[in-house]
Amino acid sequence: MNKVKNILLVGVGGQGIILASKVLSSGLIDAGYDVKMSEVHGMAQRGGSVTTQVRYGEKVYSPIIGKGQADIIVAFEKVEALRWLEYLKPDGKIVINDYKIPSATVLSGKEKYPEKVLEKLEEKFDNITIINAADEAVKLGNIKAQNIVMLGGLIKALKIDNIDWNKAVKENVKEKFIDLNLKAIEKGMEFEEEKAV
User: Fold this and answer.
1) Which keywords has UniProt assigned to this entry (predicted)?
2) Tell me, what DSSP letter sits at residue 68?
3) What confidence tens digit (pLDDT) does each residue in 51-97 have?
């Protein structure tokens, strides 16, 4: 049986979601999976909604994930998790970054940033891992590495940590950031281990 896994990565422009998806796809391809990836940008500038869809398995025919089909949603920003929930399978999993980026409408005062986002998600879903990826990335020396911390959490959640992720990082990240990102992916995998205990 050709079991295809559907991963939806969601967040805000400038968070490095596309890079994380490329590292993920690269590792999966190296491991012998058929992989399809699509990306959708919201507003062209930083701050717009960005999503990538990664599907992998023995044979994948389309990169598109329909509503109610995602095995896992990886949310790089809290409200983006709420925005894309209808894509999650009933028994799906959420890996969420405890990080807030107010939208333009929130910053202008037209809307309020939703309260207790994580609490609402935890009430609805048992299978949720919360990662404070920004804090961990800052400890590693660069907040921009939070995308790879999140990728590490996703890898552990999917139980695909037997793949050579260091190689995938090295092939997709600028040389001067390789060491930082190798530490970041390892840190993200630790979060999922802690959650599993």
Assistant:
1) Oxidoreductase, Pyruvate
2) T
3) 999 999 999 999 999 999 999 999 999 999 999 999 999 999 999 99
CA 113 to chain centre: 21
SS3 182: helix
What is the rounded distance in angstroms from the CA atom of residue 55 to the CA atom of residue 45? 27
pLDDT for position 45: 52
Q: What angle do CA 140, 166, 75 make, to 5 degrees?
A: 60
Q: Which residues contact 111 (CB under 8 A, 6 or more apart)?
A: 103, 105
Q: Residue 193: what are its φ and ψ, rounded to 5°? A: -65, -45
**Domain span at 74:** 5-196
The total number of structural domains in the chain stands at: 1
Give the whole-angstrom CA distance, residue 165 versus residue 169. 6
